[in-house]
Specification:
Blueprint lengths: L18 H9 L4 E8 L5 E3 L5 E4 L16 H4 L5 E11 L5 E6 H11 L9 E10 L2 E5 L5 E5 L20 E10 L2 E5 L7 H5 L7 E10 L2 E7 L2 E5 L9 E11 L4 E12 L17 E3 L10 E3 L2
Parallel strand pairs: 3-5, 13-15
Antiparallel strand pairs: 1-2, 1-4, 2-3, 4-5, 6-7, 6-9, 7-8, 9-10, 11-12, 11-14, 12-13, 14-15, 16-17
């Protein structure tokens, strides 16, 4: 069984013309997705499942709701979004119409037991970005279960806010960096390549586009790729987030440095650049960013 981030697998989306069709899907144990159209005053989620009513009772809305470890905002924030669930059964009203009773919590518990609990540090997982805060990116790692990528784990090139690297709703690949009981912390930077892999795309004499990430007294750091930045000399009227054209003066692997000259400055970067994954496997034991002969070593040992 594959547990997708909510809303990212269109094959799970269903609507039914008749109760009998939904009852058959329930017997098959199908995981279904549909859009939440209302969160009522009791925080039950009303779902658009087609020709009949469908409700996820509050206690079935998410793992931890009944215990108080998950806040009700986790339910309120689902309105107008797709959620996953199983059909538990049907309740007949006084007017003989049926309402489907659904459980999102059941799918989340299965996802935890059959997938997340089995992950080991270094495993690569698909995810979707759900919220960006200054300290990091929250991601859906399956069935609406959230985890965090801290801001310093988004790339080697430093950024001031995760929105400089990611967008909400974006599908990404991540690697499990830390597992502390049920709390999972993920990373992105190890999948974006080493210094040499990124630097091989540039050569002395090239003129390329970059983004200013930092303006210091001694120079300007220009990001050429999420895991690669070079240093250019200062110029007036430059600002963080600005796109620039830079001339590559030199590439020095033993010092892990790229020297740049700013040729022209443009406006602010409007959207994050697309991510290019240099690692395409399913598990990492270790990652060595720095060239072997470089004095400064940046490594990740997954254990």
């Amino acid at each position: 069984m594959t547990y997708y981030p909510e809303g990212k697998c269109k094959l799970l989306r269903r609507k039914f013309d008749a109760v009998e069709d939904a009852e058959a899907a329930a017997k098959r144990g199908e995981i279904i997705e549909a859009k939440v159209i209302l969160c009522d005053r009791e925080h039950n989620l009303h779902v658009d499942l087609g020709a009949f009513g469908a409700v996820i009772p509050r206690c079935e809305g998410a793992v931890g709701i009944s215990e108080g470890t998950t806040k009700d905002i986790a339910l309120i924030s689902r309105v107008n979004k797709y959620v996953c669930f199983r059909i538990l059964g049907f309740q007949e009203n006084s007017n003989k119409t049926k309402t489907a009773l659904l459980s999102r919590k059941a799918v989340q518990e299965e996802c935890i037991n059959n997938y997340l609990d089995l992950l080991t540090v270094g495993d690569v997982a698909d995810a979707a970005v759900t919220r960006l805060e200054r300290f990091g990116a929250f991601i859906d790692i399956g069935a609406g279960i959230n985890a965090l990528i801290p801001i310093d784990m988004l790339s080697v090139s430093r950024i001031n806010h995760p929105n400089e690297r990611l967008e909400e709703g974006q599908k990404i690949r991540t690697v499990l960096r830390k597992k502390d009981g049920g709390k999972l912390t993920f990373s992105l930077r190890e999948l974006l390549g080493t210094w040499e892999e990124n630097a091989s795309l540039f050569a002395a004499g090239d003129t390329v586009t970059g983004v200013i990430r930092s303006v210091e007294e001694y120079g300007v750091f220009v990001e050429l790729a999420p895991n690669l930045a070079g240093l250019a000399e200062l110029r007036d009227n430059l600002f963080v987030g600005q796109q620039v054209a830079v001339f590559v003066k030199s590439v020095v692997p033993e010092k892990m440095k790229i020297k740049l000259v700013i040729v022209e400055a443009f406006g602010r970067e409007e959207t994050p650049a697309p991510l290019t994954y240099r690692f395409t496997g399913t598990h990492m034991n270790e990652w060595h960013y720095s060239p072997k002969n470089c004095d400064k070593q940046i490594d990740t040992i997954f254990s």
